[in-house]
Here is the input.
Amino acid sequence: MIEIEKLHLRQGDFRLSDVNLTIETGTYAVLMGKTGSGKTSLLEAVCGLRSIAGGSIRLHGREISSAKPGARGIGYVPQDGALFPTMTVEAQLAFPLRLRNWSRQRIRDRIEALAALLQIEPLLRRKPDRLSGGEKQRVALGRALSFEPSLLCLDEPMASLDEETKESLYQGLQQLRNQVAVTALHVTHSSGEALRLGDRIFRLEQGSVQTMAPEALQKITANGAGPKPPG
Here is the structure.
């Protein structure tokens, strides 16, 4: 479970104040919000990539607000994937495991399992310049999952993908949810994305996080106030 209580975040003229959010273990939560609403800033604060001015962040009851990013037990998929340009896919997946001093055999076994789960076995020897946008995101997802994190955070993973590639990544994420008991916080501006993936849907607006019922979001989408869900 991830619990955010009374979180305050400031950067220049931008600020979030008194933000509260709870995500139960095993829940795939989607956080929606307009551009500039602060949803990425909130995600980065959870991951330890942005300092907070007050409040608390707890993961399975452990206070992590002051912990370094690598000590939080959180896997992070940034919008652009942020793959290492000179590393093969296999090395990308192994990198977090080597930092945690996993044995060679354990690393090999984990890479084999991840490659099968994400259907990237043929890509293991390739470097990022030989991958499509969707393949890069699958690799970034695999790297984030490699060390079996307590929480998976995804920042607009579909943003720069074409429709065909998005569909492939949707299927990959849905397969992941079916096979792995992952707790996730997925940030997006897309109502279609939220409806298709979210067990729970939240909306960040004017600095406040509100729970949004899928039925209400579907009604808004059907009335033309947002993009229609794919499929």
